[in-house]
Amino acid sequence: MVLKRCGCKQPCRIAEHSWHIRLNLRRGVAGAKEEAGAVSKYAFLLPTNAPLPTTKAEALDLEARVRTWVLSGRLITPPISAAEPVETSAPITIATAGKAYLDHYVLPELAGVSEPGIVRRFIRQLGSHPIADLTDRKVARAYLQSVQATSSGTNVNRHRSRWSHFLNWCRTEYGLTGESPFYQRSMRPQGLKRHLENRRERRLREGEEAALIQACKMLDDGGMLLGRYYCAVDALLRRGEMLALQNAQLRIERVKGAPTYFLAITAPTAKSRKAREVPVQSARLMQFLNERRFARYIFGQLDGSPISVSQFRTDWEKVLLASGLYAGEYRNTVVSGRKREKHRDWFLTKDSDLNWHDLRHEGASRMHDQGVPLREIQKLLGHSSLATTERYLNPKDTGIVESLRRVARELGI
């Protein structure tokens, strides 16, 4: 990290006050002891006749050089001549840097579910750009707008954070210089800000659960989607965790004389990359699990084989249509031109805005309404942060009104 030790109470903007560098490297790395000092201490790593850093971006650039110098065993190299280019080869592209980033940093066993996919999208859309474009605000804005066009604000912020981390990684690995394109209160107030995240507050309304269950029973899949529905609402499993669950991860144990089913979620399939066990006490879900004990994939297809995500989405859409929560029709449209061609396109006539993931929110909110402690709900959901669990819980308006009535009755107001 870079900082100033001038004693200014506010973020210091005085150029005459010098920057300091402090590195805390991991244990087991060559030269892993802390490296700290003023920027003048590392002047030998700057190009010949180059001035000492006066801005945070320049200090971060020097910090990357210091980190490389420490990791290489503190070998003193001759100063870089400002008159001679560092590299005479073609500039490094985002595709080259992105592949190295995936191979050396985004390890499959440590990365989150979305990280590799985000980096691959960098490579796919911006692979031909030089890595210097990572600091270009126009390029970053156009990319984030393309993400926003196909996903939610939460996903846009994930791409923004991954871009920022990838940029800092390129500073260390390739000596990339330049300011970050993103917002910083004091150093880059004109940068790109985080996207506003709309909190999902959709819960099942009266009669919707009965309609969904009836539609699941009508689906010709042997009751598999019905079992998945019970799993999402009663056990709070994510779709990916549920579809990857195999019979070896199902354990039956008697707790105080009553059978209890445990679903073991492994680290590779969990979004947080943390293994956990989810106990099941729902009678309807336990009945389904008992019938599926010997199937290879418990929530896969009827024959025990895995089910694809596309097939899962098709089945869920059929259930929404059959339940009446979702409706549409094919209409003939005419494309004008030299040849007037007719097409049959699908038009929505009713959209309840109910996603499969909303069922997980519904189940967690039901537990909260019944007084289950927040920490226990967090453990069942597999969240690393309690703040994430709190965003999942959506108390119904009727519950809030009843609580206000109780308070007014007890206080006599």
Short description:
This protein is an alpha+beta fold. It has helices spanning 56-71, 94-104, 115-126, 137-148, 153-174, 208-218, 224-235, 239-243, 283-291, 309-323, 357-369, 374-381, 386-392, 397-411, and strands spanning 2-4, 19-23, 35-38, 250-255, 258-265, 276-280, 326-335, 341-351. The longest helix is centred in the middle third of the chain and has 22 residues, at 153-174.
What does the model show?
The chain is α+β, with helices and mostly antiparallel strands and 413 residues long. It contains 14 helices and eight strands. The strands form three sheets. A three-stranded antiparallel beta sheet has the order 1-2-3, with helices on one face. A three-stranded antiparallel beta sheet has the order 4-5-6. Strand 4 and strand 5 (258-265) form a beta hairpin. It starts with a strand and ends with a helix.
Poorly predicted ranges (pLDDT <50, ≥5 residues)?
27-31, 78-88
Helix content: 40-55%
Largest sheet descriptor: 3 strands, antiparallel
The number of E-state strands comes to 8
Spatial shape: globular
The structural class is alpha+beta
Discrete helix count: 14
Q: What sequence of helices (H) and strands (E) makes up the elements?
A: EEEHHHHHHHHEEEHHEEHHHH
What is the CA-atom radius of gyration, in angstroms? 28 Å
Distance between the termini: 56 Å
Q: Strand share of the residues?
A: 5-15%
Mean pLDDT figure: 83
- How would you name the oligomeric state of the polypeptide chains in this document? single chain
Strand order of the largest sheet: 1-2-3
